[in-house]
Write a structure and sequence with these properties.
With 227 residues, the chain is of the alpha+beta class. It contains eight helices and seven strands. The protein has helices spanning 7-19, 28-35, 39-51, 67-89, 95-105, 111-120, 166-175, 208-211, and strands at residues 55-58, 62-65, 155-159, 182-188, 195-199, 202-206, 215-218. Helix 2 crosses helix 3. The longest helix is centred in the middle third of the chain and has 23 residues, at 67-89. The radius of gyration is 19 Å and the shape is globular.
């Protein structure tokens, strides 16, 4: 499917998928803002993809992906994350640099090259940002809650979106809150107060606004049976 979808189509499908996780339809104006293109450009792309059966468009209710559209969107996200992993692991780029570089050429890769990259990287489970790499032909990607959704005692692994403000990334780096790092919530102050986290053996305090920009994969709690 990747070989029949252009770069502009792929970026639009990814943008719709990311903004419709809660089941809501997405309006073309919001997509134009997200992709930084003219509304007319988005309307033309939406019409083309609707004709191909990848999405459903109602001018008054917005856009919704069909099942083939979701498959195409998830496949595009999978490819992006595999290419990011290649750039970070094999070429040494920083995780936030890999995000930008991957977008510049990922659309040109044949499916066979994507598959071989995945195998050469030893089937990675996540991208350099800490987000999961979905399986082939998946129609969905497991959701990750924001860090602020955790409660005292919860343990999780950090994921940081590539769209995060560079100043926030720098602040997080100074706190040790990098993609893949394990954190434990020690305290959560009431009334939208800050979190106190255990990071690499030290307590760190993070405000609600920043904590809602970071996502996490919860660590499953294993209960040992005693006989």
């Amino acid at each position: 499917m990747n070989t029949t979808i252009s770069k502009s189509d792929s970026e639009l499908l990814k943008a719709i998928y990311r903004r419709s996780r809660d089941g809501a339809r997405v309006h073309t104006g919001a997509l134009a803002d997200a992709l930084k293109v003219a509304p007319g450009t988005v309307t033309a792309l939406v019409k083309r993809l609707a004709e191909r059966g990848l999405l459903d468009h109602n001018p008054y209710r917005g856009v919704e992906l069909t099942r083939p559209g979701r498959e195409a969107a998830v496949a595009a996200i999978r490819r992006h994350r595999i290419v990011e992993r290649f750039l970070a692991d094999m070429l040494g780029y920083a995780w936030n640099e890999a995000d930008l570089l991957a977008s510049s050429f990922e659309h040109e890769l044949p499916q066979e090259v994507e598959d071989r990259l995945f195998l050469a990287l030893d089937r990675p489970a996540s991208c350099p940002h800490g987000f999961p790499i979905p399986a082939r032909e998946a129609v969905d990607i497991p959701e990750m809650p924001p860090l602020y959704a955790l409660e005292p005692g919860d343990v999780a692994y950090v994921a940081v979106p590539g769209s995060t403000d560079p100043q926030v990334i720098e602040f997080l780096d100074q706190m040790g809150l990098r993609p893949g790092v394990e954190v434990e919530v020690r305290e959560k102050h009431p009334f939208d107060g800050p979190l106190v986290l255990r990071v690499d053996g030290q307590d760190r305090t993070v405000g609600e606004k920043v904590a809602n920009q970071i996502f996490v994969k919860r660590e499953d709690k294993v209960v040992e049976e005693r006989t």
